[in-house]
Write a structure and sequence with these properties.
The complex is a heterodimer. Chain A is an alpha/beta fold. Chain A has helices spanning 2-8, 25-40, 50-53, 87-91, 159-173, 175-182, 191-202, 276-283, and strands at residues 11-16, 44-48, 63-66, 74-75, 78-79, 96-100, 104-105, 121-124, 127-129, 149-156, 217-220, 224-228, 233-234, 241-242, 246-255, 258-267, 271-273. By secondary structure, chain B is of the alpha+beta class. Classes of the chains: A alpha/beta, B alpha+beta.
Chain lengths: 285, 103
């Protein structure tokens, strides 16, 4: 039964990428899409704007959708286009969709399991930092909810998933109001916070265990660098690309005003790179 | 610059504790499996419980990872979880042995 379902239901990944003055997010999406194709064997759809699309070779994508970006979000004195994530539901051509941040490095097939976990929606509700184990979980504010993460979301076309994405749009449109209620800084729009509120609203402010992916979202955080063993590259005279699966992690462990450098290697594990310069370094090998 | 040179130049030490935590994170997630309408972790507790029941009955009700009571066919779930447990733990053990030798 399970096998029949998998053959008939379309699955894929949706990526959002809008270039800023500092970073080419569309290029990051190309890198992410190649790894999604390889490690998850899923097609990808890119949601972007004309300007960003013109900077890349989009042949890796199954489909590209151009939208008018909402430039009404300023971070570090620069436009940061991260609004409109709610469009994933209506725009996705797939019945079962993974929505991924472009700076999330797919390095295993682990996310395929999420399709078997929920009939409607799931995302991460807990995090772990590489080489900084046991860091506190982020909350919206000191007396509000634990943050849910929009970095990885799985949804299936369903009434409930539709409700979550509609609530996400509603929270985005009234972000300052919710920031006021939950006492977080509302100046810069964050998808994670909006998603947290949207899921809580749809669930009547109660916990629904099946909304949460039962393992941690792994971050590469501050004082941490990560380097690929070798760059993803085409094998000589062949159309095959060899994908690097091993990464070296370097960590500046500060103790008593002294730093001690520590390292380890990881493989077969996905991770989210918070530092965009670091991500560009990984992309370029 | 290759990563070996990078580590050497930075005079970095291999962090056994971090590597151990990373392995735990990685392999714990690999122990999760969706079967018979529930989501299960192939851990010692679940396998031992299924094994105990397997001598007396064909089906039982177990609380899955999402706290749902799910009626399961014991022998079939026990076999899936045991196979998964053995495969994952063998891989975990092999990788742990490798890192024990690192300096």
């Amino acid at each position: 039964m399970e096998t029949i379902r998998k053959q008939t239901v379309s699955q894929g990944a949706v990526l959002f990428a809008f270039n800023s003055s500092k970073y080419n997010y569309a290029e990051m999406a190309v890198y992410a899409a190649k790894r999604i194709n390889f490690f998850l064997s899923l097609p990808t759809t890119l949601i972007t704007d004309e300007e960003s699309l013109n900077t890349i070779d989009a042949s890796v994508f199954d489909k590209t959708i151009c939208v008018t970006p909402d430039k009404d979000n300023i971070k570090d004195n620069q436009v940061w286009i991260n609004k409109g994530r709610y469009q994933a539901y209506e725009s996705s051509p797939y019945e079962e969709t993974l929505v991924l941040d472009v700076d999330y490095v797919i390095n295993s097939d682990r996310l395929l399991k999420t399709f078997d976990m929920s009939d409607s929606f799931c995302c991460h509700n807990s995090t772990e930092f590489l080489m900084y184990s046991g860091a506190a979980q982020e909350t919206l504010s000191s007396y509000s909810y634990n943050t849910l993460w929009a970095t990885v979301m799985m949804f299936k076309k369903s009434h409930r998933a539709k409700q979550i994405f509609e609530a996400l749009e509603m929270v985005q449109n009234n972000y300052d109001h919710y920031a006021n209620i939950h006492s977080f800084v509302g100046g810069v729009y964050r998808n994670d916070y909006a998603l947290t509120l949207a899921v809580k609203i749809v669930n009547g402010h109660s916990e629904v265990a099946s909304d949460y992916i039962p393992w941690n979202l792994v971050h590469v955080g501050k004082n941490t660098s990560i380097y690929p063993g070798y760059p993803d590259c085409k094998i000589l005279d062949q159309e095959v690309i060899a994908y690097n699966a091993e990464f070296t992690v370097l960590f500046d462990n500060w103790k008593n005003s002294k730093v001690r450098k520590e390292w380890m290697t990881i493989n077969d594990m996905d991770f989210h790179v918070m530092n965009k310069d670091l991500f560009v370094g990984i992309m370029n090998g | 610059m290759d990563t070996k040179t990078l580590i050497k130049d930075a005079k970095a030490r291999f962090s056994h504790n971090s590597a151990k935590a990373y392995l735990k994170e990685k392999y714990n997630s690999k122990l999760i499996i969706a079967e018979q309408g529930g989501l299960w972790k192939a851990d010692a507790h679940t396998i031992a419980l299924l094994h105990a029941f397997n001598h007396f009955q064909d089906t039982t009700v177990l609380i899955d990872t999402f706290d749902n009571p799910v009626e399961v066919e014991i022998a079939s779930l026990l076999e899936s979880l045991t196979t998964l447990y053995n495969n994952v733990m063998t891989e975990w053990n092999a990788e742990w042995k490798q890192l024990e030798n690192k300096r």
